[in-house]
Each structure stands twice: as structure tokens, then as C-alpha cells.
């Protein structure tokens, strides 16, 4: 199986406080990898390492190596804008821009210098279709994106991410603010998207992890306690702490 990311001896500190402890893990291309664990265990901190969002946090220090396609993403030669184009992100709360549905999807493309209206139209439609929202919005593309429901806004944010043609999509609890029907739509969408993208998702819902992911990593206090194929991890956990967490004894 082809590797997307290789992480070796990764430590992360916020000032004096160590948040991630010597992590070593490989993540695979065109698979869904879920990060599970109790609040404050390092899942989202680790997720933000892949597009260097932690660079924006004062006093954050990282040691160790993260390579993507065998390139060190923390090297001085790494273009961070290029990295964040290749590694897109969808946040916990939908965050559409206060502009039209069309302009939300076209925004990044325009920033990257694409001006051809026909090409923009084509990519906007394709991205909205891939995000399974085109049929719902095709007659409303000039309406403000904030008029959409929460679930539609989140799918629009996924379309905005897809439009930039990333290799990887990071998702930080993308359904935690959504109702069960909208959650189901996003989960079905993730199943479709993994044919074309590597997806890494942080989720509080073990049921969600078991439904949609191929691999799962269980985090506890900044450590990866256990990592492996989702079916195996949930049916035959190797570590007592994993078993206690997934059976609801703690967390």
C-alpha cells in the first residue's frame, strides 16, 4: 500500500507543555484514517501538523519528521502555501465566506490566478457535484452561502476544498455541529471522496470512526496507544486502554 505521510519521532510542545509524545505512524493514500480519543488527547493538534497550521500558534515547537510523498514538509524549502493547497482542511464548524455560493468555491482558484470564466464555471460545478450538493444549489449559485443550512454549508466547504485539487483532505470533527441526517450525508460523501483523496478525520464518535474509516489511531494524553485497521482495532483491540475506551469504560 502506498504511503502518504510518514511520521517519525514527532514531539510537539506548547511552551513548556508537551502535547504530543514521540509519535511514529504511517498513513496511507486514498484511505480514510480516523483519530479517536478523549478530549484534549492530541488528535486535533496532530491533525494540524499535516498542513502546518500549528505554525500559527505562538510558542509551538515541533521536533521530529513528517514526510509527504518522501518530502520533508517542515524543511525550510517547503512552500507553505503550496502545502496548504495540497493538504486541504475542513473545520468543525462550517465556515463559508459571506459571499455567493459560486464565489465561495471560486475564491481559492481566483487567488491562485485563474481568471477564465468558462474554466471557473467548470471547476465550480465539478466541485459542487463531487461534494454532493450541486443539485440542491444549482439554481441558487448567486445567493449568499450563509443562507444554506448547516449541513449544506459544510458540504460547500468541502467543495471549496476540493476545487483546489488537493491530495489530502483533513477533517476536524466535520459533523459535530450537524444533525443526524446531515451527518449521514457527509459520511456518505467521505465514502465517495476516498476514491480520489486521502482523508484524515478527527472524530469524537466511535460509531462514525467504525462506519467510515479504513484505519484508526487511538490517542491518549499525547500518545498513540494503538493504530491499525479499523475492523481489527474495534473487534480485537490489542491494548487494554483501547478496549476500555471503545467499550465506554472511560472517556
Tell me about this structure.
The chain is α/β, with parallel strands linked by helices. The chain has one domain: P-loop containing nucleotide triphosphate hydrolases (Rossmann fold, 3-Layer(aba) Sandwich). The protein is built from ten helices and ten strands. It has helices spanning 43-47, 80-86, 101-111, 117-130, 134-137, 150-163, 180-193, 206-212, 230-235, 240-246, and strands at residues 3-14, 17-28, 32-36, 60-68, 71-72, 87-90, 168-172, 198-202, 215-220, 223-229. The strands form two sheets. The protein has a six-stranded mixed beta sheet. The chain has a four-stranded antiparallel beta sheet with strand order 2-1-4-5, with no helix packed on it. Helix 3 packs across helix 4 (117-130) and helix 3 packs parallel to helix 6 (150-163).
Question: Which helices and strands, and how do they pair?
Answer:
Blueprint: E1 3-14, E2 17-28, E3 32-36, H1 43-47, E4 60-68, E5 71-72, H2 80-86, E6 87-90, H3 101-111, H4 117-130, H5 134-137, H6 150-163, E7 168-172, H7 180-193, E8 198-202, H8 206-212, E9 215-220, E10 223-229, H9 230-235, H10 240-246
Parallel strand pairs: 3-8, 3-9, 6-7, 7-8
Antiparallel strand pairs: 1-2, 1-4, 4-5, 9-10
